[in-house]
Amino acid sequence: MTENSTVSRRQILSAHQTGQKIRRIAFEIYEQNLKEKSIIIAGIAGEGFAFAKRLTAELTQISPLDVRLIELRFDKNVHQQSAILFDRELNVENQVVIIADDVLNTGRTLAFALEPFLKVPMKKVQVAVIVDRSHHKFPIHADYVGYSLSTTLTEHVEVVLSRAEEEGVYLK
């Protein structure tokens, strides 16, 4: 990490607080899916997938659910829909899928992430995020939110789960 990357950022949630939010989301997911035998956690590549891994671990600890984890990979920076790839083959038909990402800002990334699940019959598709910034431009809302944060459009929220020494939520 460079010196400049820490100068203008402020920690909003510590590693411990972030972990508590993830655990609470796991309990909420379990409560909303008590009658299910299995669910799929689909994490968006990057910190979204790191979040999905943590959710999977928590759900495995607290519930009898068969939790399957997949990674959704696509280019979030293109203006048109890019191809979405799963990291492995998995039958998602008639399943409950939780799409997990670190931050919900405009909803664009999550709207794109829905694309492969709209092509097959689904039991239920839900969204889980650690931080909801509420600057929605797409009709996407999160079913499970760790922390709602009011920000300006120029501010940036960074969730760090993949580097233990920096874990937490930051505002830049």
Automatic annotation (TrEMBL):
Domain Phosphoribosyltransferase: 10-148
Key word Glycosyltransferase present: yes
Keyword Plastid (UniProt): no
Superkingdom of the organism of origin: Bacteria
Pfam families for the chain: Pribosyltran
Alphabetical list of InterPro entries matching this protein: PRTase-like, PRTase_dom, PyrR_bifunctional
Keywords linked to the UniProt accession: Glycosyltransferase, Transferase
GO molecular function, one term: glycosyltransferase activity
Protein name as it appears in the record: Pyrimidine operon attenuation protein / uracil phosphoribosyltransferase
UniProt organism field: Dyadobacter soli
